[in-house]
Write a structure and sequence with these properties.
8-stranded mixed β-sheet; binds guanosine-5'-diphosphate
Length: 294
């Protein structure tokens, strides 16, 4: 993951470490390389501009340039600022003091919503919770079946009413969860190929009806800025609590991981790292930064 970006940044850092003293021009040149590497990784250009300005401001002071290891110092600043860009520390999901905690998953078709609903249920189950998966994606052929197969695999019940109205399915699932002791309800909603009014309208109605504690958007990391734009649009229409970044295992660039929080204000809460049910990680900005920067 992030191979392309990582390689370029490490080459720049190697040159920085190799120099004894650093001048302001050396820092400017190194930051120019960092800027290009980030843009090539499909990080949002405005985010890159602000990031580089912040790093530069902190790097060209006397304290850094006259330190014993100025190169190391600049690298540390880059590291810290990249962590900050992704939100600093991890963002947890809010668990309601009055069960069930209701989590609504939204996203475009193919982003990995259904898979991640099941992965999240699996993670929560391992933490001692009793999740219920709810099949509200009634339009995509085989989506209900897919959720049922995954539920079976991880031994988590799936609530479905076939092609019923999704708002009704969602609200009936809450009644079911209370009767059956499910303390987390994960609602898999419908996706479309593009964001459209009809989709948003249905999602808003489900939101208004079940009042979820968490609305999480699943976006495909490999789509870079398209993922960021989707996050922006969904956030404006629905008010997201966080993002699940799927398919990070196939992402050589890192543009979405580095831009989502800075552009939308929404933290990435989880990352999907494969097709298997245990391929879900809590998104730790510091660990991701270390993977990128080496
Ligand atoms: P949905 O339309 O948003 O519900 O998407 P699905 O959950 O059906 O996922 C679409 C495809 O992406 C499936 O083939 C999944 O196996 C695959 N997929 C989902 N998440 C990941 C991931 O984190 N890594 C990889 N490599 N594949 C994933």
């Amino acid at each position: 993951m992030f191979e392309g970006l990582s390689e370029k940044l490490q080459a720049t850092f190697k040159r920085l470490r190799g120099k004894g003293k650093l001048t302001e021009a050396d820092v400017t040149e190194a930051l120019r390389e960092v800027r290009i590497a980030l843009l090539e990784a499909d990080v949002n250009f405005k985010v890159v501009k602000e990031l580089i300005a912040r790093i530069k401001e902190r790097s060209v002071g006397q304290e850094v340039l006259e330190s014993l290891t100025p190169g190391q110092h600049v690298i540390k600043i880059v590291h810290e600022e990249i962590i900050r860009l992704m939100g600093g520390s991890e963002s947890k999901i809010s668990i309601s003091s009055k069960p069930p905690t209701i989590i609504m998953l939204v996203g475009l078709q193919g982003a990995g919503k259904t898979t991640h609903g099941a992965k999240l249920a699996n993670m929560l189950k391992k933490q001692g919770k009793h999740p219920l998966l709810v099949a509200c994606d009634i339009y995509r052929p085989a989506a209900i079946k897919q959720l049922e197969v995954l539920g079976e695999q991880i031994k988590v019940p799936v609530f479905s009413l076939g092609q019923e109205n999704p708002v009704k399915i969602a609200s009936e699932s809450l009644v079911f969860s209370r009767k059956n002791g499910n303390d987390v309800v994960i609602i898999d909603t419908a996706g479309r190929l593009h964001i459209n009014e009809e989709l948003m309208d249905e999602l808003s109605r489900i939101k208004g009806n079940v009042k979820p504690h968490e609305i999480l958007l699943v976006v495909d990391a490999m789509t870079g800025q398209d993922a960021v734009n989707a996050a922006d649009a969904f956030h404006q229409q629905l008010g997201l609590d966080g993002v699940i970044l799927s398919k990070l295992d196939g992402d050589t660039r890192g543009g979405a991981a580095l831009s989502v929080k800075a552009v939308t204000g929404c933290p990435i809460k989880f990352a999907g790292t494969g097709e298997k049910m245990d391929a879900l990680e809590v998104f730790h900005p510091d660990r991701i930064a270390s993977r990128i920067l080496g």
